Amino acid sequence: PRRLPAGLAPLTPPQVQAPAADDPGDVAGVTDPSLIKQGDTYYLFSSGPGIDVRASTDLTHWRRLGQVFDAVPAWARQAVPGTAGIWAPDVSFFGGRYHLYYAVSTFGGQRSVIGQAVNATLDPTDPDYRWVDLGPVVASRPGRDNFNAIDPNVLSNPSGGVWLAFGSQWTGIKLLRLDPE
Questions:
Q1: Which pLDDT score, from 0 to 100, does residue 175 have?
Q2: What is the per-residue pLDDT across 117-143, written as a single tens digit (0 to 9) for each?
Q3: How far is 89 from 149, CA to CA, in rounded Å?
Q4: Where are the beta strands (DSSP E) in 2-131?
Q5: First vs last Cα of the chain: how many Å apart?
Q6: Chain mean position to CA 161
Q7: CA-CA distance, 20 to 119, in Å (whole number)?
Q8: Of the residues 1, 6, 17, 161, which has the fewest C-beta atoms closer than 10 A?
Q9: For residue 76, which phi and psi values (nearest 5 degrees)?
Q10: E strand or H helix that includes residue 156
């Protein structure tokens, strides 16, 4: 066996105990998280059948708020046959409302779409709370495109431009200018 140089010890993985399923700090199973703050509350969106939503005021104790969608939107199931869930949500605020971009695909498949939903607020107790699905933003298909429409991420520049970065297979990352309205 190889010996470590003098003064170095092997790293020991931390002992982590999984929280109970009903623990308000339970974030087990959160995949592809996207975080945003509205008022004094942080909202966490993650991959799942309908985009899971959690909330916290201290970034430690989380409560589940449900899902954005009851199921994968019908337009996305039609565009991507065989899909089982919604991936990599990305939430941002611009143009006076919250924008949630999300990907629908199959693992390793190039037939993919990125959709968008909007809401006036993230607080489910607010009377204006309602996610509205605006449908597809960009799609990729085998034999037609040299990219994959997955893993959306919104960014803005100092002059007010809003951009959607996406992709992670085939020809790398792409950038699409968005209408901030």
A1: 93
A2: 999 999 999 999 999 999 999 999 988
A3: 13
A4: 34-38, 41-46, 52-56, 63-67, 87-94, 97-104, 112-119
A5: 61
A6: 21
A7: 32
A8: 1
A9: -75, -35
A10: strand 153-156
Neighbours of 79 (CB within 10 A): 20
Closest C-alpha to 86, from 66, 108, 101: 101
Give CA–CA dist 117/99, Å, rounded. 6
Residue with tokens 């449908």: 135
- Condensed to tens digits (0 to 9), the pLDDT of residues 7-23 reads 544 444 444 344 455 55
Residue 41 · residue 55 · CB < 8 Å:
yes
Report CA-CA distances (Å) from 18 to 21, 26, 37, 44, 148: 9, 8, 26, 19, 34
- Longest distance between any two alpha carbons in the chain, whole Å: 65
Tokens of 80: 């991507």
CA distance 168 to 7: 41
Nearest alpha carbon to residue 178 among 104, 75, 92, 112: 92
pTM for the predicted model, two decimal places: 0.84
DSSP state of 80: S
Q: How far apart are CA 112 and CA 119, in angstroms?
A: 24
